[in-house]
């Protein structure tokens, strides 16, 4: 696993880009996967990455695994690539809905202050 300083910096970056609470993310993952006739079990809702982000939000930094660290890097890199954090929140345009939903699956709501 990464050294303590690297893990600390990653933990801070992850919580900087993930601005949804674990309850908000869990609700979003369930809504996102709900279909007209069925709804997945809460532990099976959302993408694998979304579920992993949710699990990380429920952990202490000292309990992180190598897989958690890998996912955290992926989330930070993806959100940083898709969002200008200095200009958030920004008004949503119709063509931004897909982008917003993708980001929310990673725990970042671009419309959240």
Features of the shown structure:
mainly alpha, 5 helices, 55% helix, 0% strand, globular
Structure write-up:
This protein has helices spanning 4-17, 22-33, 48-57, 66-82, 97-105. Helices cover 55% and strands 0% of the residues. It starts with a helix and ends in an 8-residue tail after the last helix. The chain is globular. It has 5 helices and no strands. It is mainly α.
What's the short story on this structure?
This protein has 113 residues and is mainly alpha-helical. 55% of the residues lie in helices and 0% in strands. α1 packs across α4 (66-82) and α2 runs antiparallel to α3.
- Profile the largest sheet: none
Mean pLDDT score: 83
Count of individual helical segments: 5
Class based on secondary structure composition and strand pairing: mainly alpha
**Rg from alpha-carbon coordinates:** 14 Å
| Helix content percent band | 40-55%
Weakly predicted, low-confidence segments: none
Sequence of secondary-structure elements: HHHHH
Strand percentage = under 5%
Give me the count of strands: 0
């Amino acid at each position: 696993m990464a050294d303590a300083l690297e893990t600390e910096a990653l933990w801070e970056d992850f919580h900087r880009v993930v601005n949804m609470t674990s309850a908000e993310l869990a609700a979003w993952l369930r809504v996102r996967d709900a279909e007209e006739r069925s709804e997945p079990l809460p532990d099976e809702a959302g993408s694998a990455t979304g579920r992993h982000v949710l699990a990380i939000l429920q952990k202490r930094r000292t309990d992180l695994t190598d897989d958690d660290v890998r996912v955290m890097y992926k989330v930070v890199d993806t959100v940083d690539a898709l969002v200008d954090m200095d200009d958030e929140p920004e008004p949503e345009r119709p063509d931004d809905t897909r982008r917003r939903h993708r980001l929310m699956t990673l725990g970042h709501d671009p419309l959240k202050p």
